């Protein structure tokens, strides 16, 4: 493939992938740590022979091969999993600072990512259930996709941080007039009336159960 064709194919494929994933050049640069100017040159067709260090993180982010990114292989496989997004899997201790913490993560400095086909914001993250006592559908090892940018509604499962104890937990939100109650998934635990010490850090959008239970 000559450099002119390579330049055109990368620009065309990258444009298609960005449109499918609804991501801007600036956001793609932030998530992949590829300099914004480099992505801009790729989109403008001004980089006829991009380096491997440039195309590799882009291919990784879009879950395609390098051959697919440069146009040597069709994107058929990508279309079967249209609009996949990746959210970082963080620890429960990092939830209270998640909005700032997630912004620092990319494929170069963070290894734990959860793929999802649902639409999520740039602040979304995932958690792994670490307790054995919560029960189905929140069994040990279950991965929770959490969306901080949606307004919690009555009946939503939410991630709650309690400032006084410094603990983070999974609760079900029950709204009764002006009162907001936090119910544990395990019905044997008493409900808690929310106060100023409680802060909701996101709602559960997706639950991925583990295939193997220890």
Descriptive overview:
It is a single chain. This protein has 214 residues and is of the alpha+beta class. The chain has 7 helices and 9 strands, in the order ααααααβαββββββββ. The chain has a 7-stranded antiparallel β-sheet, with no helix packed on it. Strands 1-2 form a two-stranded antiparallel ribbon. A hairpin with an 8-residue loop joins β7 and β8 (192-193). The longest helix has 18 residues, at 3-20. Mean pLDDT is 85; it is low at 77-81.
SS class: alpha+beta
Radius of gyration of CA atoms, rounded to a whole number: 21 Å
Question: Unreliable runs, pLDDT <50, ≥5 residues?
Answer: 77-81
Give me the strand/helix succession. HHHHHHEHEEEEEEEE
- What does the average pLDDT come to? 85
Arrangement of strands in the largest sheet: 3-4-9-5-6-7-8
**Total helical elements:** 7
Total number of beta strands: 9
Task: Furnish the topology, listing elements before pairings.
Elements: H1 3-20, H2 25-32, H3 36-44, H4 52-62, H5 66-69, H6 76-80, E1 85-88, H7 98-103, E2 113-116, E3 125-128, E4 143-147, E5 157-162, E6 167-176, E7 179-183, E8 192-193, E9 198-208
Antiparallel strand pairs: 1-2, 3-4, 4-9, 5-6, 5-9, 6-7, 7-8
Which properties best describe this structure?
9 strands; single chain; 214 residues; two-stranded antiparallel ribbon; elongated; seven-stranded antiparallel β-sheet; alpha+beta
Quick recap:
The protein has 214 residues and is an alpha+beta fold. The chain has helices at 3-20, 25-32, 36-44, 52-62, 66-69, 76-80, 98-103, and strands at residues 85-88, 113-116, 125-128, 143-147, 157-162, 167-176, 179-183, 192-193, 198-208.
